Amino acid sequence: MNIDELIKESEKELVDVYKNIDEQEYLNSTKVLNAFWNNNVSEACFNSTTGYGYNDLGRDTIEKIFAEILGAEDALVRNQFISGSHALNVCFFAILRPNDTLLSISGTPYDTLHEVIGIKKNPSSLKSFGIKYDEIDLLNDDFDYKRIEKYLLKNKVKVIEIQRSKGYSTRKSITLNKIEKVVKFIKNIDKNIIIMVDNCYCEFVENKTPLEVGCDIIVGSLIKNLGASIAPNGAYIAGKKKLVELAAERLTLPGEGKEVGPSLGINKSILQGIYFAPSVVASSLKVAILTSKVLEKLGYDVEPKYYDKRADIVQNITFRDPEKLIRYCQGIQAGSPVDSFAIPQPWDMPGYDDKVIMASGSFTQGSSIEISCDGPLREPYIAYQQGSVSYSYGKLALKKALEFLQEEK
Questions:
Q1: What is the mean pLDDT of residues 33-44?
Q2: What does the angle CA 362 – CA 364 – CA 370 come to, to the nearest 5 degrees?
Q3: Which one of 249, 262, 300, 403 is separated from 172 by 20 to 30 angstroms, measured CA to CA?
Q4: Which of these, 75, 56, 51, 54, lies nearest to 256 by C-alpha position?
Q5: What is d(CA 30, CA 51) in angstroms, rounded to the nearest whole number?
Q6: How deeply is 266 buried, as exposed, middle or buried, from its count of CB atoms within 10 A (0-12, 13-18, 19+)?
Q7: For residues 124 and 118, what is the distance between their CA atoms, to the nearest angstrom?
Q8: How would you classify residue 363: left for phi > 0, otherwise alpha for psi between -120 and 50, otherwise beta?
Q9: Quick check: 202 and 28 in contact, CB under 8 A?
């Protein structure tokens, strides 16, 4: 197999697909730039606060920008969030009270939320505070409307949670068309149910956001799409003002909420991140599509296919062989800019039930918007690849991964 020829041949076949992504990037860039103009971003916004963080112009401007871009009444965008999972945790504890019910309608959530919810025993979980949890699996990669209706007619539900991206499952990620349809369905049954969406990996992939199709609150990480590899940490919560206020008072303290929280010099990075995000997400999508096309030609099962409508930046490759999964991830690591000499090995990663192989030779630890690839060591041995700050860098990493697969003995 000549890897260069395979990639070039695939690129020629993807010209029209790439053109659609370029058009999407332009629309998202327009949305971002309008938000910068409308909120009067100035050099003063780059200034830092310490201590309590009172009157932080940059922080407050950032939250107005995120709210406008995401179609929200309000937003909480903070470096005090350690991760997207942390922001989800804050959101759950902000909205839910003892004896309330949380219902997931997209199956079992991502592994790092199991101890948060109480799926896996933990004395600090929602369950330990008397919050009930239940879940309904997807049906043929769509919502199970009959089971949802039956459940809601028999049970009082406070919050419905939807995880758009697939996590370490084999299901498809959830498009906004499906979100919009199920939101209307749920609100017709009970308009007071709060619909919360884990929007990680999905920002700027489609024309709208979950808030613009009827959801109440969304959560995402800044070391994924909207940080564009520039924001060094943080996350956001956006949506209905009263819900964002509750989240702010859970992150800080009641009575102070969004008024406190020092930016500690991060404002410029967050602003640059959201500014470059449309371009970086477009590059990530192109790399994912190229990966899908090339690996399918080599005989591997891939999801999504190169021609599929995408909801996020994640590309699945099913190897059905642990050694192939390991070699591919090691190749992605070797094609990365940082720690390219390191050889990833499966390990017992905190929050996961299986050993995980993870390649992330990134400038920011755990940054999924930079080229990365990981997967649990369990059948059918799927690699979950995401990100790339530029198309060329992603293509080079893919080439290196293919070389590692080719060298496998």
A1: 98
A2: 45
A3: 403
A4: 54
A5: 36
A6: buried
A7: 8
A8: alpha
A9: no
Question: Scanning the structure block, which residue is given the tokens 């080079």?
Answer: 396
Q: What residue has token string 């009575």? A: 255
Phi/psi region, residue 309 (left: phi>0; alpha: psi -120 to 50; beta: rest), is: beta
User: Which backbone phi and psi does 41 adopt, to 5 degrees?
Assistant: -65, 130
Alpha helix stretches (DSSP H) within 305-390: 322-334
Measured CA to CA, the distance from residue 129 to residue 388 in angstroms comes to: 40
Would you say 259 and 235 are in contact if contact means Cβ atoms under 8 Å apart?
A: no
pLDDT at 170: 86
User: Do the bridges between strand 356-359 and strand 217-221 make them parallel or antiparallel, or are there none, so unpaired?
Assistant: unpaired
Q: Global pTM?
A: 0.95
Contact by Cβ (8 Å): 234, 81: yes
Which string of DSSP letters, residue by residue, matches 323-341? HHHHHHHHHHHHTSSSSTT
Q: Which DSSP string do the residues of 243-293 spell out, in sequence order?
A: HHHHHHHHHS-TTTGGG----TT-HHHHHHHHHHHHHHHHHHHHHHHHHHH
Partners of residue 360 on adjacent β-strands: none
The H or E element containing residue 84 is helix 84-95
Could you tell me how many residues make up the chain? 409
Name the nearest CA neighbour of 282 among 15, 9, 19, 6: 19
Q: Give 101-147 pLDDT, tens digit per residue.
A: 999 999 999 888 999 999 999 999 999 999 999 999 999 999 999 99
